[in-house]
């Protein structure tokens, strides 16, 4: 994560010890040696913010990968599960895609109390993403700007990490296209990823809304979206027959949509019987951050300034869809009240990412408590 949420090894630049969770029993750690993820994040954030945003992100993922097994397990749910997309979620609060693109820290992240995790965005082949620097904090507004560009190790590396993880909860896998794949051939990349991740996914999210891959958002246009969703739905049916289980498909859309575009997207979702929509990705707008350091950087804006725009899209989609399929809301959730507001706008689940940079792991539990009951 850009600001980092890890409570171990952040700021350390020496190599981590060459042992993992499977060897931790040999260490005979006492309970007192375990790490409390709810330690005051405000004490750690100033240190983390001395690091470049992407460096802090990478160190966090590495720390969660190495030492996530030392975090105490999240408490068991005390409320009935929430059924969405035919899946039973232990709570309504999930991790948004983008934090753990390669599925390297699944077991550590699972201990923070999320009801579900979404990894990726992953592409068929590895790619480095856009040139650095490409991630910037705007602390005055609890915001981020990034132009990462789907940097990831490729779908095969992701699958290896998922198979290694012990996590048995709900896992979404977010798929995209390689930057060098022509937009006219984008469907082939999405189908390749769907084929490969289907067996290990609880649901698959189709990312056509990142602003950091050239022309990607063109896939949200009426004709292109219709063709892509049609191809994915046919392949979903074939894979369900092959594997003997139905894996839901969710479409992730942008916040920078007008009313007509939202109507067209809602119609396509219904027509192709897509299982859910994720609203929203980052925005190209700069409302709320104009004039701040880094505000002029190219890329998608996330965090608190995105809340109003993203929530408006949730509300419009809810009206257009008339409860025919569920909405997973993301964008600007920096406290429990904002998570609750997403449900009021029409969502059934929420996802957080940028808020963790400014609030730390306590944000997860706060949002879970705020969203136990849907309005």
What is the assigned CATH homologous superfamily? Aldolase class I
Question: What CATH first level would be assigned?
Answer: Alpha Beta
Overall 3D form: globular
Helix coverage percent: 25-40%
* Cα-atom radius of gyration: 19 Å
Mean pLDDT: 89
Describe this structure in words.
This protein is an alpha/beta fold and 375 residues long. The protein has a single domain, classed as Alpha-Beta Barrel (TIM Barrel). Helices cover 34% and strands 15% of the residues. The protein has helices at residues 24-27, 41-48, 53-67, 106-110, 155-164, 186-197, 222-243, 259-271, 307-321, 336-345, 354-359, 362-370, and strands spanning 82-84, 87-89, 93-95, 116-122, 135-138, 143-146, 171-175, 203-207, 249-253, 276-279, 300-303, 327-330, 349-352. The strands form 3 sheets. The protein has an 8-stranded parallel beta barrel, surrounded by 4 helices. A 3-stranded antiparallel beta sheet has the order 5-6-11, with no helix packed on it. It is globular and about 50 Å long. The two termini are 31 Å apart. The relative contact order is 0.14. Mean pLDDT is 89; it is low at 1-33.
């Amino acid at each position: 994560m850009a600001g980092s949420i890890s409570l171990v090894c952040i700021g350390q630049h020496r190599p981590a010890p060459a042992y993992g969770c499977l060897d931790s029993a040999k260490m005979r750690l006492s309970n007192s040696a375990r790490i409390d993820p709810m330690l005051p994040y405000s004490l750690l954030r100033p240190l983390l913010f001395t690091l470049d945003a992407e460096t802090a992100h990478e160190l966090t993922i590495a720390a969660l990968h190495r030492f996530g097994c030392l975090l105490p397990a999240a408490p068991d749910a005390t409320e009935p599960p929430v059924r969405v997309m035919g899946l039973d979620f232990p709570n309504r609060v999930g991790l948004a895609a983008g934090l753990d693109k390669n599925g390297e820290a699944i077991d550590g992240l699972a201990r923070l109390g999320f009801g579900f995790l979404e990894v990726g965005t992953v592409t068929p082949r590895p790619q480095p993403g856009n040139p650095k620097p490409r991630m910037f904090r705007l602390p005055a507004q609890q915001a981020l700007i990034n132009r990462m560009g789907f940097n990831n190790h490729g779908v095969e590396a992701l699958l290896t990490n998922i198979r290694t993880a012990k996590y048995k909860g709900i896992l979404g896998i977010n798929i995209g296209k390689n930057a060098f794949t022509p937009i006219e051939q984008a469907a082939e990349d999405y189908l390749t990823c769907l084929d490969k991740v289907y067996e290990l996914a609880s649901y698959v999210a189709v990312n056509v809304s990142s602003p950091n891959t050239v022309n990607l958002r063109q896939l949200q246009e009426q004709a292109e979206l219709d063709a892509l969703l049609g191809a994915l739905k046919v392949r979903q049916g074939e894979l369900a027959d092959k594997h003997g289980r139905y894996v839901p498909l969710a479409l992730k859309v942008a916040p920078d949509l007008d009313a007509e575009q939202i109507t067209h997207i809602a119609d396509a979702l219904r027509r192709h019987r897509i299982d859910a929509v994720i609203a929203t990705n980052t925005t190209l707008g700069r409302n709320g951050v104009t004039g701040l350091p880094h505000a002029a950087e190219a890329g998608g804006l996330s965090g608190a300034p995105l809340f109003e725009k993203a929530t408006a899209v949730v509300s419009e989609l809810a009206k257009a869809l008339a409860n025919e399929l569920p909405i997973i809301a993301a964008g600007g959730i920096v406290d429990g009240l904002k998570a609750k507001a997403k449900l009021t706008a029409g969502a059934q689940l929420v996802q957080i990412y940028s808020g963790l940079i400014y609030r730390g792991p306590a944000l997860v539990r706060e949002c879970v408590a705020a969203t136990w009951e849907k309005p």
